[in-house]
Amino acid sequence: MNARTLRKAVLVAGAALVVRRALRRRVGRSPLWPLPALEEPTSGRPRARALTLLVTRHEQIADGVVQLRLEGHELPAWRPGAHLDLVLPSGLVRQYSLCGDPEDTSSYTVAARLIPADEGGRGGSREVHEQVQEGAEVEVRGPRNRFPLDTKAPAHLFVAGGIGITPILPMLREVAARGGDWRLLYGGRSRASMPFLEDLAKLDAHGDRVTVVAEDTDGRPDLAGALAATAPGTAVYCCGPEGLMAAVEEQLPGGRALHLERFTPRNTADGNGPFEVELRRSGTVVEVPADSTVLAAVRAELPNVSYSCEQGFCGTCQQRVLEGEIDHRDELLTDSERGDSMLICVSRARGERLVLDL
User: How wide is the angle at C-alpha 349 spanned by C-alphas 345 and 352, nearest 5°?
Assistant: First the structure.
């Protein structure tokens, strides 16, 4: 190779390196490049760092309820009310509240109730029961906490329905350890289907703080009576079926702080109607039918748009909204975030059109 050829090769290689670096910077500024970028694209929220944990216990602790112990090393800390994203063998992602000891940095404990298809189950709980067995490795993300315990409240009333006891159990332990004023109203279909009854009995040494109501023998819990017995300033925590949480919201006396934990999208009186979504960067307009979601419509055009839980809880599908009124149906975004963004897996338009930064 003569000197002239060598110089030419060096120049070509250098130019290629410059182009590659410029391309990486351009993609970094706008991950959907070469679609046109807006001045400040903020769409999407990165997923939490994933951990791979070992299932060391898969135990049935009540009728239709299994408990998993997931072990690792120096696991991220959590406080009562936190939950994990559990990535199942099929790739489905489901959220489960942590119900173990926050001081244990070597394991996480979660519990899952089997939800049949005729009750709205979509297959995730069946995978947990049948496929996530001892010795398996599972991927988790989190923990995250959108149901934090208010330790400064003068008193606490906890209301749990069925598997809704899972985020509340660590709260009870902490409040009891602090010597706080607390009560629990715990309802379920039957005592056999209600997990952690023995744990609750140990916490309620004098038998005057925990009220267990099994529907097959005792009927429905007296929500009105339990709420009316609270003093102003009481923090009321509720997790369970949507009907239970709606009843607590309706009957809550004034002057009490209500905290709810949902793992299904909030019901809305507005119903579903069709609308259109403009993807501003490409200029594409997609139709969102009444029986579908913004996520489904967008992914038909942009298959690589990130999503995960499809329930409005993980935040992966958060997108910036440039125009239009949003019907928020998630339980995650803050008030400030709701002003100009939405979770496209569950939220919809209040009008006929939305414009997204996509």
Answer: 135
From CA 109, how far away is CA 100, in angstroms rounded? 5
Average pLDDT over the chain reads: 87
- What is the amino acid identity at position 170? P
Please say whether the dihedral angle defined by the alpha carbons of residues 311, 137, 126 and 91, taken in this order, is positive or negative. positive
Q: Are 127 and 112 in contact (CB under 8 A)?
A: no
137-151 burial, b if ≥16 CB within 10 A, otherwise e?
ebebbbbbbbbebee
Partners of residue 160 on adjacent β-strands: 186, 239
Task: Give the pair of three-digit tokens for residue 206.
Answer: 């004098």
Terminal Cα-to-Cα distance of the chain (whole angstroms)? 50
DSSP letters, 148-173, are ---TTSS-EEEEEEGGGHHHHHHHHH
Single out the residue of 134, 116, 133, 137 nearest to residue 125, CA to CA.
116
* Overall average pLDDT of the 175-185 stretch: 97
Instruction: Give the single-character DSSP code of 91.
Output: S
Q: How far is CA 211 from CA 41, 157, 186, 222, in A?
A: 51, 11, 6, 10
The DSSP line for 60-81 is EEETTEEEEEEE-SSPPP--TT
What does DSSP assign to residue 37? P
| Tens digit of each residue's pLDDT (9 = 90 or more) over 3-20 | 666 566 555 555 555 555
* pLDDT level of residue 26 (50, 70, 90 thresholds): very low
Predicted pLDDT at 330 = 85
Global pTM value: 0.75
Q: Report d(CA 128, CA 124) in Å as an integer.
A: 6
**How far is Cα 148 from Cα 84, in angstroms, rounded to an integer?**
14
